[in-house]
Amino acid sequence: MKVVVEILTRTLFYIQVENDATVLDLKRAIEAQEKHQHDRLILMFKGALTCIIMNKDDSPLTSYGVGDNSHIYLLFCPLPPPPHPHNDNDDGFLPHFLWNSLESMGSDQQHSPFTGSSGQSE
Predict the structure, then answer these.
(1) Ubiquitin-like domain: which residues (predicted)?
(2) How many CA atoms lie within 13 A of 19 on its CB side?
(3) Is 96 left (phi over 0), alpha (psi -120 to 50) or beta?
């Protein structure tokens, strides 16, 4: 079957897969053709009545109602934040912009979001 895939930038492309293809087969075909990592892809199919996120990789496309010339929407899982350059133990908990904001405050604890106005921990 041939399906139309649309990225949120309104870019369209066509992908050819077998009639018995699974969601994972389609993701891998997109990866091979468009160079997007298959494990970051979120596929959504707009049926007649609802929008369905195709989240079971081992399910056949037909189980979601996908057929020849169906229109699939492609979204991407966000990448994990990069590790903070000054903290080797960064677990990715604080977003990068927050680290930068905290660093810009320097050692002045009066401005720390983790202490009270007196500079003492609450």
Answers:
(1) 1-75
(2) 1
(3) alpha
Task: Name the amino acid, one letter, at 67.
Answer: G
User: How do the domains of the chain map onto residue ranges?
Assistant: 2-76, 80-122
Residue pair 27/43 in contact by the 8 Å Cβ criterion: yes
Please name the fold of domain 2-76: Ubiquitin-like (UB roll) (3.10.20)
Query: Which residues face 3 on adjacent strands?
Result: 15
Q: What are phi and psi of 60, to 5 degrees?
A: -65, 145
The better pLDDT of the pair 28, 83 is held by 28
pTM of the model: 0.65
